[in-house]
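Supplementary Note 3. Input sequence used for the single-chain structure prediction.
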Amino acid sequence: MTAAVFFGCAFVAFGPALALYILTIATEPLRIIFLIVGAFFWLISLLLSSIVWFMARTITGNRDGPTQKYLLIFGVLISVLIQEMFRFAYYRLLKKANEGLKTINPDETAPSIQLLAYVSGLGFGIMSGVFSFVNTLSDSLGPGTVGIHGDSPQFFLNSAFMTLVIILLHMFWGIVFFDGCEKKKWFAPVAVLLTHLLVSALTFISPHYGISLVSAYLILVVMGIWAFFVAGGSCRSLKLCLLCQDKDFLLLNQRSR
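The predicted structure, written as discrete structure tokens, is reproduced below.
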């Protein structure tokens, strides 16, 4: 049973991201590099957040009670702010890299900013999901029984679905964030920051999994629709794609084979 929980939760949390990687990134070396660098940027943001957390814990003297609660809220706030700062830094880096590629080889088409945003966002999301869920996933192998002391027996499954939503949100956040920076629409990065804070705050009500998961997936739907349209999508293109009538999409798949 523990093996079934382990593999089931692993595929729920990382299955869609793995499929996206295999279908859209694995065959392009440049995209793989951008994804790895994006994951590395998220790791650096985690390192800085950990340093700030350690300093705050040291200053407060590791006190218990309400101090720890406010310290946890402070840690989440700082972590989200640092992550979005590094997302902006990565946008600036990719912008420079794109311009460099055009200068070196003007005849070759440089990757679009939407593609770079998608790849970098997926890199952020995968690394975030791995660090947030890997310890919980290892505990699912046992020993022990979840819920024996009155807790939710669906803890691992709920954690897997929350990890999934975080991974996909990072992908959508990246697309919306980069588009806002590219077009100087600064409300988009602000919206990404606020929704990131909101989703992170939902984890504070972890025993109420229904509320946190439903709210997080509603935000996911809104950000997904927003990302779809800023990436150049339309209702017509979505309809053609679903009906397998999009000639550009079909030709692209044919060339990739």
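The first helix runs from residue 2 to 24. Residues 249-257 have pLDDT under 50 and may be disordered.
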